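Margin note: ligand = zinc ion.
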Amino acid sequence: MKFDLAYCRSLDDKLSIYDVRDLNFDETVAFDSAKEQFQCPNDACRAAFDAANVLGTFNAKNVNYVRTPHFKNIPSTRHVEGCPYVSLKTPASGVEADGGETDDSREEHFPSELLLTRREYVRKPSSPAVAADVRRDERVPSAASHGEHPSRDSAPDKTHVFAHPVECFVSNFADKELLKRMPLKIGEHTAPYSSFFKKIEFLLDNKGLIYWGKIKKIEDYHSASFRIDFEQKVWFKQPGEAKKKPYSVNVYLSKKLIDNYRKRKAFLAEIKHAIESDAPLYCFFYGVTPELKQVPSKKNPEQTFGVFSAHIENLDHFIIREAPGLEGQ
Ligand SMILES: [Zn+2]
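Resulting structure:
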C-alpha cells in the first residue's frame, strides 16, 4: 500500500501529494512543503510516535516533473505494527537519483471524483507559524470553525486537483483494462478513465470531457498570452460539403486568465520550460470543448479558414506536461 494521503501537522489535515503541490505553487497561501511536517495518515500510528517521526516527499516542488509525485518513508520513519503503510519500501540510502524507485512510478490511488471547487485549508489555531495567510474563499466559512473538518471532500476518493486524475491516466496508460475499470466523475458526468480522457482528434464524439493531445507548437505572444496547437487534426464534414476535411485544433490562454491565476509564477515557469523543451509534450484540459471557428488567414487577411478552437477558462483544469507513457499517441 502506498501513501494516498499524509497528515500535515500545521494544517491538522490529511493531504494528497497533489494538494501539497497545489499549495506549494499557490501565491495566495503561505505554504512550503520543505518546511512542513508530514506524518503517517494512520491516526493510531501517528499517536504512537513523537512529532519527529515524519515522511518525505518526492516531486512536491518540481514544476516540470516527469515521475509520479509521492510521499515516502525516509530511513528514520517508523510505523506501528499492523499499520497498513508499514510495508512501504524505505529507500536504503536516501539517494533519489538512481532510478531505483520504479515501483513508485505509477499512481495507484484513482480519485473517483474531481471536484471543481477549490479545497479550503484552515491552519491549526495553535500553530505559531503563518496563520493569516490562508484564503477562505469560495466556501461558507461558518462550518469550518469548530476544529472539526465537517466537509470530507478531501476523502481519498475525491480530489480538487486536476493533476491527480491526469497522473492516474498518464502513469497507467499501458494498463487499458485498469483505466476501463476505474470510474471518474466530474460534475454530473461519470465515465471510466479510459473514456473520460478523450484524444483531441475525437473531440466531436462528446462534449464536456477531458481532452488531451500531443502539442505541435506553443505560440508565445510576448509571454503574456499563449496559443497551444495540437498535432492531431479533427476530421469534420461541413454542411454542404461532400466529405470530411481535416481541421487544426488549438486552445488559447488569455493574458487576463494568466495574470489572475493564483499559481501564475509556476504556470509561466512551466510554459516557458515547455517552449524551450525538445521533449514531446502533452496538453490536458477540462471545462471547454473546442468548436469550429473561422479565423482570418495571416497571409491574406481577407480570407478565412476553419479551425477548432477554444479559450481556456480556468487554468486549474489545464496542464502541459511530459508524459513518456503516452509517446506515440
Ligand atoms: Zn503508519
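The chain has two domains: 1-105+120-153, 191-326.
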